[in-house]
Structure formats: structure tokens, C-alpha cells
Amino acid sequence: MNTLTKLWTVEDVATFLGVPVATLYQWRHHRTGPRGRKIGRHLRYVPEDVLSWVQEQE
């Protein structure tokens, strides 16, 4: 990860993927979506992780 890369919020990822925010939380609960990280009490995503996850989908 580039140290200058801005982490994405749940809203950022939902917009990028074109899915509702609730879907991301469901995916996280079922461990099926892109990898998210807790930063304090906030959920954040590394853009490269999201892009990698998208490429892994059939």
C-alpha cells in the first residue's frame, strides 16, 4: 500500500461498486466482500484491496 493512498470509507466503496452500504456490511458479516479494516471505530478499505477483490470475482 502506498503510504499516501487515501483509505476509502464504506460510502466510497459502495459508490465505486454500485451497491448499497447495507450490502457491504452484509458481505463483511458473511466474509464474502472486499477486505475492510477497522481504524478505531471506523471501517475503512484500502483501494488496492477493493480492486483486487473485484478482479477475483467471476
From TrEMBL:
Domain Helix-turn-helix, first and last residues per copy: 9-57
SUPFAM superfamilies: Putative DNA-binding domain
Pfam families for this protein: HTH_17
GO MF term (any one): DNA binding
InterPro entries: DNA-bd_dom_put_sf, HTH_17
UniProtKB keywords: DNA-binding
DNA-binding as UniProt keyword: yes
Source organism, top-level taxon: Bacteria
Keyword DNA-binding: yes
Record protein name field: Predicted DNA-binding transcriptional regulator AlpA
Species name: Nonomuraea maritima
